[in-house]
Amino acid sequence: MALDPLNPSAGLRSNAGPQPSGMIPRMGISVVVPVFRSSGTLNELFSRIKSSMRGTPFEVVLVDDGSGDSTWELVKELASRNPEVVGLRLGRNSGQHSALLAGIREAKFPITVTIDDDLQNPPEEIPRLIEALQSTGADVVYGVPINSAQTPWRRSGGWAVRRTMQSALGVDEVINMSSFRAFRTNLRDAFNVRVGPGVSIDALLAWGSSSFTSIEVSHQARAIGSSNYSLSKLTRFALDTLTGYTTVPLRVVSAMGFVTASLGLLLMVGFVLIPFARGLSVQGFPFLASTIILFSGIQLVTLGVIGEYLARMHFRIMNKPEYVIADRQQISRPSDLV
After folding, report:
1. Please, which residues have CB within 8 angstroms of residue 208's CB and are 6 or more apart in sequence?
2. What's the maximum distance between 2 C-alpha atoms anywhere in the chain?
3. Each residue's pLDDT tens digit, 118-152
4. Cα(46)–Cα(62) distance, integer angstroms
């Protein structure tokens, strides 16, 4: 089934962000791929993306996230031979979501699709994401694996992160979030500002819309290499999202403060007032030990949460960038313009 040419009559929004004067992009799809040490899969990935477009105008934005190997040379080669390819190289490894943000800001077409470079999500599923975006009227569509090829611990860790973000962002469909997503490019207008390090694309998309949905897609085992996401990186990502885009942690520690204050009052009654009223001696050591341990732990947690927010404020005040584009490769693409 050929893709719809994505014309305005299909109900899509025509604003794809600011464009150069007199240069209006044709309707089509921008496919953004964060690339990291993936020279073994890029040729096949591009070939399969191109085949899945079936005549629809498209571009593929390959963002090299500081691979440090031959990946950038391959990206440049692809961009020099294919007018649909735009190659960006970041100056340092900034993380998958920062690389995605760089590619999303580069997108020229009104629909953006993000997909990983490891071929676990088949590019042939892209038309189904676009069809779901059109038929449901949603602004964001996630491709949810039918049978995930990830390891059990990776699935469990990913589920915990998604549950955390679902509660933090207040968007139920975020529980189905994945790196394989399609969305209306004009959502980037909601985050067309410097957001600082610790980027979360899903949190940024939630700034612009609450209309999310998902469909089931196939998921295949990695043909080459292994995942770069460890449990510690997943945890760091969840913490960055919580402290960078919500005030949930501050509310939690505030609630903990009320709870501990109430508990402290009960301890005071139990260890001091009741024994004193009965003419008994007050057992000072159990009282002091329990209160010190309890309140010290709560204070450390509170200071840690406040420290995370202060650190993010510090980086944003310094205007620390999400990424730095060190190099760019593309050839003239007259077919993109009308």
Report:
1. 139, 187, 188, 189, 190, 191
2. 93
3. 899 999 999 999 999 999 999 999 998 887 655 56
4. 10
pLDDT in tens, 273-298: 666 677 666 666 666 766 776 777 77
- Report the candidate in 170, 245, 244 with the shortest Cα–Cα distance to residue 212: 170
Report the 10 Å Cβ neighbour count for 298.
Answer: 18
Q: What is the pTM of this model?
A: 0.70
SS3 content of the chain, % helix, strand, coil (to 5): 50, 15, 35
For residue 153, give both structure tokens.
């611990």
Phi, psi of 25 (to 5 degrees): -70, 145
Instruction: Find tokens 């440090």 and name the residue.
Output: 68
CA pair distance 209, 186, nearest whole angstrom: 11
Q: How is residue 189 written in tokens? A: 């207008």
78: closest CA among 112, 123, 39?
39
Residue-wise pLDDT tens digits, 56-76: 999 999 999 988 888 999 999
**Per DSSP, which regions of 6-51 are E strands?**
29-35
Beta strands in the chain (DSSP E): 29-35, 58-64, 85-90, 111-114, 140-145, 181-184, 212-217, 325-329
Handedness of CA 241, 180, 109, 97 (dihedral sign): positive
Coil, strand or helix at 320 = coil
